[in-house]
Amino acid sequence: xxxxxxxxxxxxxxxxxxxxxxxxxxxxxxxxxxxxxxxxxxxxxxxxxxxxxxxxxxxxxxxxxxxxxxxxxxxxxxxxxxxxxxxxxxxxxxxxxxxxxxxxxxxxxxxxxxxxxxxxxxxxxxxxxxxxxxxxxxxxxxxxxxxxxxxxxxxxxxxxxxxxxxxxxxxxxxxxxxxxxxxxxxxxxxxxxxxxxxxxxxxxxxxxxxxxxxxxxxxxxxxxxxxxxxxxxxxxxxxxxxxxxxxxxxxxxxxxxxxxxxxxxxxxxxxxxxxxxxxxxxxxxxxxxxxxxxxxxxxxxxxxxxxxxxxxxxxxxxxxxxxxxxxxxxxxxxxxxxxxxxxxxxxxxxxxxxxxxxxxxxxxxxxxxxxxxxxxxxxxxxxxxxxxxxxxxxxxxxxxxxxxxxxxxxxxxxxxxxxxxxxxxxxxxxxxxxxxxxxxxxxxxxxxxxxxxxxxxxxxxxxxxxxxxxxxxxxxxxxxxxxxxxxxxxxxxxxxxxxx
Length: 500
Ligand code: FAD
Known about the structure:
It is a single chain. It is built from 14 helices and 21 strands. The protein is an alpha+beta fold. The protein folds into three domains: 3-77 and 161-236 and 318-385, FAD/NAD(P)-binding domain, CATH 3.50.50.60; 99-132 and 147-154 and 388-486, no CATH class; 243-313, 2-Layer Sandwich (D-Amino Acid Oxidase, Chain A, domain 2), CATH 3.30.9.100. It has a seven-stranded mixed beta sheet. A six-stranded mixed beta sheet has the order 7-2-1-11-20-19. A three-stranded antiparallel beta sheet has the order 8-9-10, with no helix packed on it. It starts with 8 loop residues before the first strand and ends in a 15-residue tail after the last helix. The mean pLDDT is 96. The structure holds flavin-adenine dinucleotide. GO terms for molecular function: monooxygenase activity; nucleotide binding.
C-alpha cells in the first residue's frame, strides 16, 4: 500500500454517546497515525436516554484500557444482570432474560434440553436454580467475578449508566489521547467530483477537511442521509412503536441490579436504576396512544418515586439506513438507524459498528468491495437484533388492547419464523453468524414467552439419568451457596440515591 493513500484525517460529527464511543475507539486504535476531530453542536442536544447496556460494554471498556471501577464511579453506574419482563405474555406473568450460562453442558447437550426433559418428568426446576444471574438479581445481590471468595466466576453482567456522564468520561479519555473537540454547527458540506465529502462547513464561518467522516449526528443523519441520501429501510410494519416519553425519577433503595421492561396497553415501559436516580420511560405506538395518554400512563406507574425532570418526548422510525457506509461516510448510532431499546442494543451496535470499521479500515481509495463487505456484515447484525426484538412481541398471548392484538398479527421475517418453528418442534436453537444474542438469550425469551417445544434432543436419553439428576442437584446447591455468600448490590455504592 502506498503510504500517501493512508487515511490521515478523521472527522467524527456528533458528540452524543455514539460520537464519543467512535472518537475514543479511533483514538485508541489509530490515534498515532491519524488526526481525529470531533464536532459537536452547542445548540443541538444529545438524545441522552441510552442508559442500559449488554455485556459487550465490559469488553469495550477493556478494549479502551479503561478501569471499570473508575468508569462506574464517574458515570453513576450500576450493575445489570439481565432484564425482567413483566406482563408480556399475559398480565401478571413475568420472566427473565439474564446474561450468563444456564446450567452446564451434559454429554455435549446444551443444558436446556436436559432441563426440558426434567420438566417433562415433573421435577422442580425453576430457572433461577440453574442461572446465577437470575438467582442473584432476585435477591439484589452481586459480586465481581474476580472476587477473593472465588465464587461467581462465570457471572456475566452489563451496566446501567448516566448517558451524559458517559459522554463526559469518554470525552476526557479521547482528548487525553489527542482528539480535538470543536463546538460548531455543521451547516453544509463540500463534495469532490466523485461525491466524496471533502469538508464540513460550519455556521460559525470556518470549515474542517477530512479523509473519513463518521456521521454520529443522531436521527437526522446529517451526512449519510442529508448529503448522501442513502435511503432508509422502515421496519414499522414489524415493530409498531414509534414514540417514547422519558422521565427521570428520584433514586430508591434497593437499587435493582437489572432493567425492568413492563408491557403496557400501547407498548412497554423501562425502569433503569442508577446510583443517583432512576431512568424511566414509555415506548409506544402513536397509532395506539396519544402523547398525553402515554405520559399519564407512565406517571401512573411510578408508584411513590418522585419525578425530577419534565417528560421528554422522542419520535423515531424503527429501521436502518439502506447503507451504513457510503463513499467516505460511515454512520454510527442513531444516524445509522434505530431498533427500539427493549434489549438495550443500540450502544452495543455503536461499539460493534466501530469494531467492524476497524476490521475494514480503509485507505483513501475506499475500495468498494471493502465497503460492501462492511455493509453486509452490519446489515446482518441489525437484522438479527430486529428479529430477536420481534420475538418478544409476536409470541404474546395478550389480547386486551388493539396494540397487542396487532402484535400477534406481525408478519414474521422468514428466518425468525423458521427459528420459532424449529424450537417448537425440536427444542433446538442455533446462533446465526454476526449475531449479538447467543442461543441462551433466544432460549430465555422463547421459554419466557411461553413457547413449549414438543420434544428435546433425543441424545439426552443416552445419558445416565440418575447421574444427570445428581449433577442438577449439585448445580442447584452451588448456585444457592454462591448467592448466600455474595454481598448486596447496594453495598458497592457509598452514597444514598438523590432525594429531593
Ligand atoms: P445523539 O445523542 O442524538 O447525538 C447527536 C449529536 O450530533 C449531538 O452531539 C448533536 O449536537 C450533534 N449534531 C447534530 N446535528 C449537528 C450539526 N448540524 N452540527 C454539529 N453537531 C450536530 N441505547 C442503549 O444501548 N440502551 C438503552 O437503554 C437505550 N435506550 C433508548 C431509549 C430511547 C427512547 C431512545 C430513543 C434511544 C435509546 N437508546 C438506547 C439509544 C441510545 O440513546 C443511542 O444509541 C445513543 O445515545 C447514541 O446516540 P447518538 O450519539 O447516535 O445521537
